[in-house]
Design brief:
The protein is globular and about 50 Å long. It is mainly β and 225 residues long. Among the domains are: 43 residues, Membrane-bound Lytic Murein Transglycosylase D, Chain A (Roll), CATH 3.10.350.10; 107 residues, Glucose Permease (Domain IIA) (Distorted Sandwich), CATH 2.70.70.10. The chain starts with 5 loop residues before the first strand and ends in a 10-residue tail after the last strand. It contains two helices and twelve strands.
């Protein structure tokens, strides 16, 4: 996916969902834009999607001597500038204390794999699991909900959970979302009900990302008997 240079923040977006959309590590995105933890962003804020260009080389030649006649002093600007209205953050600040690593993972739903992980796929990079409409979707590990909505094209109703500073997981195509951004969840807690939003059949699209990069969930989930 070719990334534009900038992204204008829309209502309901979070730093995590924007990073997910463009395949970036949220910490990298925050660093490029000078955003510190808890990663608060604002509607209409313009986010850089690439690292800043190196600074231009400074000309070391001496400045020309001033003219013999000094320039007149500029007139003082005495116009009163109105104080800008405070901006409301798009999501709640992230103050959850994350573990250093994810010790165990669990299956978000029991069902057969319809589509395995394909690193060369041009679309979403995860696994697709079958199931029945209304089936409970559970958190693959403990963490905090950093996105709950339908603003990412191709995912339908989507939930993103942050498990540690390195790992995020995503659950797409849900029928109903049962958690909100900022909620802290336990491993195995019900997040949503399975559905077909954004697709043509009932299924769960499940992803794990490490430092912004998709990884094969089967390398993390327990082996099925």
């Amino acid at each position: 996916m070719d990334r534009p240079s900038y992204h204008s923040v829309e209502r309901g977006e979070s730093l995590y969902s924007i990073a997910w959309k463009y395949g970036l590590d949220y910490q990298q995105l925050a660093r490029w834009n000078g955003i510190a933890s808890p990663y608060t962003i604002y509607v209409n804020q313009r986010l850089r999607l690439h690292p800043t260009a190196p600074a231009a080389r400074v000309d070391s030649r001496p400045a020309p001597a001033p003219a013999s006649r000094p320039a007149p002093a500029p007139e003082r600007d005495i116009r009163v500038r109105s104080t800008p209205a405070p901006r409301a953050p798009t999501t709640a600040p992230d103050r959850y204390s994350y573990p250093d690593r994810v010790s165990t993972w669990r299956w978000p739903v029991q069902g057969r794999i319809l589509r395995p992980f394909d690193p060369n796929s041009p679309g979403k990079k995860g696994i697709t699991i079958s199931g029945e409409k209304g089936e409970k979707i559970r958190a693959a590990a403990a963490g905090r909900i950093v996105y709950s909505g339908s603003g990412l094209v191709g995912y339908g109703r989507l939930i993103i959970v942050k498990h540690s500073e390195d790992y995020l997981s995503a659950y797409g195509h849900n029928d109903k979302l049962l958690v909100s951004e900022g909620d802290v969840v336990k491993a195995g807690q019900v997040l949503a009900l399975m559905g077909s939003s954004g697709t043509n059949r009932t299924q769960l699209h499940f992803e794990i990302r490490r430092k912004g990069k998709p990884v094969d969930p089967l390398h993390y989930l327990p082996r099925r008997k």
